[in-house]
């Protein structure tokens, strides 16, 4: 009797973990190259995974983000995502990650998790909507540090009515 209870609990735990794994498999990690607004290519790749493939109007979502760094050490001081339904400038232009230590250091050739950005689907129109990521950082080159802004090309997300 006691062993069958443990077996049932073990099966329930296995089922729960399988459902979590299935959700992770359904939303693949995507990647975008990073570039400097002057059109120079930054030697890094941004990887991201939305929690869903599509969203409904008014729904909350999130995106997990990683940086695969290249040949320079970098220190990220600000990071956010902009959707096409948001204001172009100002406080409401981005959803952002807040770094507890004011910056986030990533060594050369490292891949690091930047964090999770929560967002709200505020668009009034269903369909494909564009987004891009924006990163403000300091980059080391030959012992000196330079302030730069990196961004990804625009990509799209699906909003359902």
Structure summarized in a few sentences:
This protein is of the alpha+beta class. It has one helix at 2-26; strands at residues 30-35, 41-50, 54-56, 60-68, 74-83, 95-97, 104-106, 111-120, 127-141, 144-151, 155-160.
Shape descriptor reads globular
At the fold tier of CATH, the topology name is Immunoglobulin-like
- Class per helix and strand makeup: alpha+beta
What's the total number of strands? Answer: 11
Distance between the termini: 51 Å
List unreliable stretches of 5+ residues.
19-26
CATH-level-4 superfamily name = Immunoglobulins
- What's the CATH architecture name? Sandwich
Strand percentage, roughly? over 45%
Q: Provide the gyration radius in Å.
A: 19 Å
- Write down the domain tally: 1
Helical region count? 1
Profile the largest sheet: 7 strands, mixed
Helix amount, in percent? 10-25%
Average pLDDT, rounded to a whole number, is 82
The CATH C-level class name: Mainly Beta
Order of helices and strands: HEEEEEEEEEEE
């Amino acid at each position: 009797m006691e062993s069958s209870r443990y077996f049932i609990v073990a099966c329930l735990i296995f089922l729960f973990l399988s459902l979590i794994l299935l959700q992770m498999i359904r939303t693949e990690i995507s990647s975008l190259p990073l570039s400097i607004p002057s059109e120079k290519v930054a030697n890094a790749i941004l990887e991201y995974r939305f929690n869903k493939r599509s969203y409904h109007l008014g729904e909350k979502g999130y995106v997990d983000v990683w940086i695969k760094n290249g040949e320079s050490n970098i220190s990220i001081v600000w990071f956010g995502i902009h959707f096409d339904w948001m204001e172009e400038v100002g406080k409401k232009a981005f959803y952002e990650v807040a770094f507890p230590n004011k910056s986030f250091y990533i060594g050369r050739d490292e891949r690091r998790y930047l964090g999770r950005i929560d967002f709200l689907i505020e668009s009034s129109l269903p369909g494909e909507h564009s987004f891009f990521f924006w990163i403000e950082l300091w980059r080391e080159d030959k012992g000196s540090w330079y302030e730069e802004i990196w961004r990804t090309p625009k990509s799209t997300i699906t909003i359902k009515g």
